[in-house]
Amino acid sequence: MLLIVGIIVVIAGLLGGFIMAGGHPADLIVMSEFVTLGGVSAGMILISTPIPGVIGLIGALKGALGASVTKTDADELLKLSYELFNTARRNGLIALEDHVLDPSKSAIFSKYKTLVKNHGRLDFLCNGLKPLIDGRIKPEQLESLMTVSLNGKEEELSHPIHVMQLVGDSLPGIGIIAAVLGIIHTMAIVDSGAAMVGKSVAGALTGTLLGVLGAYGFVNPIAARIKGNNNLEVQYYLGLMKGLCGFAQGLAPLMAVEITRRCLDHHVVPSADQMEEMLKNAGK
C-alpha cells in the first residue's frame, strides 16, 4: 500500500511543480519517448536475465506491494515450530517423519498456511528435518548444512535487486538516447518553423526527464524496497534454522522457539510473554 502511495506522491510532486511553473501536463506525454525508454529497458532485462530470473523479478515486484514477512507469518512460524518440537520431544524425531514426507497431508502443517503455501519456506524446513530424522547427520552438524541452503536462498533473493539496479543505473543514459533521437528528428525538420522545432525539442528533452525520473523516482526506490523485503525473508529463514538447530542440540521447545523469535524483526514478533501465552494453545 505504501508503495502505491509513494508513487502517487512522486507523480503529484512532479506535476505540481511543473504546473506551478506554468507548464501543461499534456506536454509531458510524449509517447515516442515512453516507447523508447520502456522498450530499451525491457530489452535489457531480457538480455541480462534468464527466464527464472524474469519470473523471480515479477514475483519480487508483486511482493513489493507489501511486506514479505507479516505478523501472521511470524506467529505461525513460532506456533508451528513449537508444535513440531513438542511432538518430537514426546514421541521422538521419528514421529515427524510422516509430516515431513508429505506436508500437504500433515495435521500439523495444514494449520499454518503462510508456510505451507510458500514452497521455499516449506522446503527449507523439511530439508532441515529429513537428515535429522533419518539419522544421517549429528545434531551439531545440522547448522552447517542449513547454512549452505540459507546462503543459496539469500543469493537467489538478491537476483531481482541486481536487475532493478541495472535498469536504474541505465535509465538516465537511455533517457539521453531518447533525447538524442528526438534531436535527430528535430534537425530533420529544422526548416518547419520555430514553433514546430520548439515542440520537437521539448519532446526530446522529455526523454531525459523520464529517464532520470524513472531511475531515481521509481526503479531505485523499488529496488530498495525489495531489498528490505529480502532482509525480512532472510531473518525468517535464519530464525527457522536457529530454532531447529537449537532444539536438535537439546534445548527445550520453548527455548528453541525463543531463539526463533529473537531472530525475527521486532515489528512482527510478539513479546516473550505474549509468545508464551500464544503457545499455550498451539497444537490444540
Task: Give a topology summary.
Elements: H1 2-20, H2 31-48, H3 51-63, H4 71-91, H5 97-101, H6 113-116, H7 119-134, H8 142-188, H9 194-248, H10 253-263, H11 272-279
Helix pairs in contact: 2-8, 2-9, 3-8, 4-9, 4-10, 7-8, 7-9, 8-9, 9-10
Q: Treating each run of at least 4 consecutive H or I residues as one helix, how many helices?
A: 11
Helix content: over 70%
* Beta-strand percent range: under 5%
Instruction: Indicate the mean pLDDT.
Output: 91
Measured distance between first and last alpha carbons:
35 Å
Rg, Å, rounded: 26 Å
Shape: elongated
Succession of helices and strands:
HHHHHHHHHHH
Give an account of the 3D structure:
This protein has helices at about 1-20, 30-50, 50-65, 70-90, 95-100, 115, 120-135, 140-190, 195-250, 255-265, 270-280. By secondary structure, it is mainly α. The chain has one domain.
Summarize, please.
With 284 residues, the protein is mainly α. It contains 11 helices and no strands.
List key phrases describing it.
284 residues, mainly alpha
